Description:
By secondary structure, the protein is an alpha+beta fold. The protein starts with 5 loop residues before the first strand and ends in a 5-residue tail after the last helix. The longest helix has 15 residues, at 91-105. The protein is globular. It has five helices and seven strands, in the order βααβββαβαββα. It binds coenzyme A (COA). Coenzyme A (COA) binds next to β4, α3 and α4.
Amino acid sequence: VIDQPVVYSRLDLPLARVLARGWPRNLRAIRRSLPAHLHHAPLSAAARCGFWVVTAKVGRTPVGLAWAVGEPGGAYIEEVAVLEPYRCRGIATALLGEIARWMIELDRPNLSIFPLSDTRWVTKAGFRPVECDRYVVDARTIVEPPGR
Length: 148
Ligand SMILES: CC(C)(COP(=O)(O)OP(=O)(O)OC[C@H]1O[C@@H](n2cnc3c(N)ncnc32)[C@H](O)[C@@H]1OP(=O)(O)O)[C@@H](O)C(=O)NCCC(=O)NCCS
């Protein structure tokens, strides 16, 4: 049971820091919930066009992570991961919402993602499939759902 609020924040994590020293230790712990082949995967070249990281924390402990890299007019969401005991409470959805708000501010509303396996949480968040397992959404429709 989470007895403290989940706090979402945009991380000031310079790309150069991750390239030189890897992910900070507490974020590595979250990334271990991703498939093993990703644990030591190098950052994609697109990170040089933008690198944005958001975390979900309970107290001082990060329990969820989402990060995106630059694409023309938008951002590609590279990874979303939530520690197992904290899943199915809407944390991944809220992380996507935080990325969406950030990208709207940067005038990069076109978000895309290649979900790893399960796609239901991605479509629930508002993404729709386009081609080759790629899902897209206009960030403005996540932050301000139509009809509101
Ligand atoms: C996928 C993942 C990020 C989802 O995190 P989460 O915080 O549990 O997701 P949410 O609680 O925001 O879920 C949103 C919706 O999707 C559903 N959902 C979440 N994970 C699901 C799964 N594995 N299978 C089916 N539905 C799922 C939730 O039930 C929820 O629906 P609801 O509102 O009707 O309950 C998390 O399971 C995870 O870290 N998995 C391992 C890493 C991974 O595969 N990441 C995906 C990279 S693209």
